[in-house]
Amino acid sequence: MFGFGKRTPEQPPDGPQVSTKLCTNKFNGRSPHVGLYDCRERKIWIAKPLAGQAIRTSHARLITGSDNATSTVWKDRFLCFWFYTPDTGQGYILGYPIDWAEAHLLVRIDPQWDYDRQRLIPAELSDQIDANIERQVKHGLRIFEFFVACKLPYPFALHLVGQRASESQFYLKRVEAAK
Fold first, then answer.
1. Region 128-155: what's the mean pLDDT?
2. Nearest 5 degrees, angle CA 92-CA 95-CA 96?
3. Which helix (H) or strand (E) holds 129?
């Protein structure tokens, strides 16, 4: 009556989940897409091509509990990534030139957000920010290895992309086409 008592939790006890209706853990190499890396479960999720536009799907939409395609609720434990197949991207990434004739894996990183511990790191704690970036690089390399294991018929490069070019690492790793 007065609002006392148990409150309804804002998210399920297990936390955010990736929608298996909208995502898969397999990739055939045919189309560009967005994806999520679950930092807790260390699992990669790839958006299914809905109406042929998997690259345009919102990352937040892939997570259960999101009420619309622009919501960022519960996205904090997931690294977002984009995979562009050859000749599907265009332009610069934060002012950096990209050769779009090849495929590119772009992984979003944030030096101040700790995906593993679910907390913000103050800017003045540079040693913790450096350790956080190292963890995010390792997560990015796990995503890269997933695509290497797909034995794609074209070369691709890994880019870690922050909010600014100075926080990014372009062409961190590259792999040739599988034979």
1. 96
2. 70
3. helix 126-149
